[in-house]
């Protein structure tokens, strides 16, 4: 079977979605020696994809088209059709409306339906209205026309069913997994810590800065923590600099919140060191379809405190201490307990080891391939 995968968003620069695509392709290459794959890539990542397994059959096709725009809707479908794939996998909801061949789509969340706010956009009111309308049209096409839908959690599955009940019988849940497998070496860790100006024990956040990530709430909870308990700790926010991260930095400056470090985007060679040396990982999101960073923190034996919203309790189970993300006081209290209470920290680490056994990229690749095969044999 000839299978296409839209890899335009591949790479850690694109957050959890980029990691998902990267790891999916990598682990398919380790288990599938039968099918032929066509990877559709942009100019900035086409040369970065190099598969080490010589038995994995694949070709790379340049699809240098930005995501979420009109060119994606009109031009991408024709590029895919020229490649003559028998099945296409779109790892995100942005499926071209004019693509009418068999495809699988992965839905990570329904953020723009459930958390629709212009604060999450740089557009004006009219532009945002059109963007939201386009999202709803494209999403509806994606879930209704797909042969099968991959949901990244039970939470996301139920969100899809709530809005599109006719899709119930074609949704399959496939969990993701952390991307790092071993800690950074000690010398590299120390160099990284010094590079970012970290000089105290610290709590860590890794991820993007969009409003639903609730970083405004996090920095205000940190302000309360410092006011109550002193400045023995730093908060390190590892997030790519953009319009939204600038707004968080502005809050920190205007409200005179101290002991916070913004690292900007952290490449994969440095990120393990940040995890390894952290005293605590904090995940304050208002909405998540899955949420990879806490699982990455688990690898480095870092205790996790997290929001009780969205899929987070499903994914983290007993491996996190939870707080209401809309309560600044509760968030500050839970973060502080996660930093200083040795009994809680021990229990969280113990539970995380057990919970982490549920997640494997190899398992994800095998289950995804099984869906491909199921569609092929059904036709």
Automatic annotation (TrEMBL):
- Domain Glycosyl transferase family: from-to ranges: 195-354
Keywords in alphabetical order: Transferase
Which Gene Ontology terms describe the biological processes this protein takes part in? lipopolysaccharide biosynthetic process
Keyword Transferase attributed: yes
Record-annotated Glycosyltransferase subfamily 4-like N-terminal domain positions? 15-175
Q: Which domain of life is it from?
A: Bacteria
Example GO molecular function: glycosyltransferase activity
Q: Name one Pfam family in it.
A: Glyco_transf_4
Protein name (database record): Glycosyl transferase family 1
> What organism is listed for this UniProt entry?
Candidatus Magasanikbacteria bacterium RIFCSPLOWO2_01_FULL_40_15
